[in-house]
């Protein structure tokens, strides 16, 4: 009897493991690449993972922290698909005629960044043209932060080529460099910016989290983050793209009405920020910058294209070779399903 019981238990364990393996095998594996898991830029997609929305769509998502520039080419033929949570302008700056990146859902209505500096650097400062020759910290090379500062300096009559950018990589490095005067200005996202503001270490020169200030700086709403997928993936794996967008649109809807207790219950892990009050304040500072429903307007895309062409006219012809950089097809279906 004991032997029979042992055999039965063993068989049950094997069947259980087989069923778990079968369940995982049924799920479609996707690598979601983003530059900083602690950044609130990525809150909608990270919420889609944390709240189980990706899983509900039959997706097995692996979040990988990696800079956009360092990412390998998309693996469309491999068992694991590859997508990015990154600024829309990244796809314009890295235009590829072979397999361009396509924005399938917008998560940021503004760049969601702020340009700040210690008070000592602001004394007597009259124009952003004075940023020429200064050391400005950004989280990674060639991102939206650099584009925002370059454009602001250009409008002020300066030459962006004279700015000295310092790639910081991580929030902890940014804090260290700022406190040691390794950088004189910083352009970054929350919760880092809010934490530095609350501690009195910086004051904001430009707040690209704000709808009003973004419109004033760019003449419209320059779009921020989006979910970027290879165009071939959107064409060949429409069901996968629809599932990805469904999950993100659900998260966008959840975020619109989430209260303090909801946010704290789903607070992103951070090695440098454990203050719950500052975290809530940071989300409030970002609140209006998040997408309402995931739709990217033609006007917002045209503005992004115009800014990129102004700062990098040499690549304008290359961008024209790509027929489309975004689609709202999947978002519109998700909006109907989830009544957004």
3D architecture notes:
There is one protein chain. With 340 residues, the chain is of the alpha/beta class. It has two domains: 28-110 and 223-338, Periplasmic binding protein-like II (D-Maltodextrin-Binding Protein, domain 2); 114-218, D-Maltodextrin-Binding Protein, domain 2 (3-Layer(aba) Sandwich), CATH 3.40.190.10. Helix content is 46%, strand content 16%. It contains 16 helices and ten strands. A five-stranded mixed beta sheet has the order 2-1-3-10-4. Helix 2 crosses helix 11 (238-257), helix 8 packs across helix 13 (276-286) and helix 11 crosses helix 16. The longest helix has 25 residues, at 2-26. It is globular. The N and C termini lie far apart (59 Å). The model is unreliable at 1-25 (pLDDT under 50).
Key terms:
340 residues, alpha/beta, D-Maltodextrin-Binding Protein, domain 2, 2 domains, 5-stranded mixed β-sheet, 16% strand, disordered N terminus
Summary?
This protein is an alpha/beta fold and 340 residues long. Helix content is 46%, strand content 16%. The longest helix is centred in the N-terminal third of the chain and has 25 residues, at 2-26.
Question: Which secondary structure elements does this structure contain, and how are they paired or packed?
Answer:
Layout: H1 2-26, E1 28-34, H2 43-50, H3 53-56, E2 59-65, E3 81-87, H4 88-93, E4 101-106, E5 114-117, H5 119-122, E6 135-138, H6 144-155, E7 164-167, H7 171-179, E8 185-188, H8 192-198, E9 203-207, H9 211-218, E10 225-230, H10 231-236, H11 238-257, H12 260-265, H13 276-286, H14 298-311, H15 316-320, H16 329-338
Parallel strand pairs: 1-2, 1-3, 6-7, 6-8
Antiparallel strand pairs: 3-10, 4-10, 5-8, 5-9
Helix pairs in contact: 2-11, 8-13, 11-16
């Amino acid at each position: 009897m004991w032997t029979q019981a042992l055999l039965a238990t063993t068989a049950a364990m094997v069947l259980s493991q087989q069923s778990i393996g079968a369940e995982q095998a049924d799920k479609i594996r996707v690598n979601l690449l983003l530059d900083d898991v602690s950044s609130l830029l990525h809150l909608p997609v990270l919420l889609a993972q944390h709240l189980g929305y990706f899983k509900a769509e039959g997706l097995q998502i692996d979040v990988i922290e990696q800079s956009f520039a360092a990412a390998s080419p998309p693996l469309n033929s491999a068992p694991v698909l590859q997508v990015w949570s990154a600024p829309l302008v990244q796809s314009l700056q890295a235009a590829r005629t072979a397999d361009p990146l396509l924005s399938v859902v917008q998560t940021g209505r503004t760049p969601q960044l702020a340009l700040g500096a210690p008070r000592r650097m602001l004394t007597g400062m009259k124009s952003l043209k004075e940023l020429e020759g200064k050391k400005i910290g950004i989280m990674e090379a060639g991102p939206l932060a650099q584009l925002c500062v370059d454009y602001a300096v250009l409008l002020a009559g300066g030459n962006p080529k004279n700015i000295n950018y310092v790639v910081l990589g991580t929030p902890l490095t940014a804090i260290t460099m700022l406190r040691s005067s390794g950088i004189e200005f910083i352009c970054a996202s929350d919760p880092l910016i809010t934490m530095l503001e609350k501690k009195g270490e910086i004051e904001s020169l430009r707040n690209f989290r704000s709808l009003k200030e973004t419109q004033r700086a760019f003449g419209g709403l320059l779009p921020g983050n989006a979910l970027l997928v290879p165009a071939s993936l959107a064409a060949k794996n429409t069901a996968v793209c629809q599932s990805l967008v469904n999950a993100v649109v659900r998260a966008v809807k959840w975020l619109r009405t989430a209260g303090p207790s909801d946010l704290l219950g789903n607070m992103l892990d951070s090695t440098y920020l454990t203050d719950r009050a500052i975290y809530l304040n940071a989300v409030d500072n970002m609140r209006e910058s998040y997408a309402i429903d995931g739709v990217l307007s033609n006007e917002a895309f045209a503005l992004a294209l115009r800014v990129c062409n102004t700062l990098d006219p040499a690549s304008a012809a290359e961008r024209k070779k790509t027929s489309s950089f975004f689609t709202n097809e999947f978002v519109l279906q998700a909006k109907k399903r989830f009544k957004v």
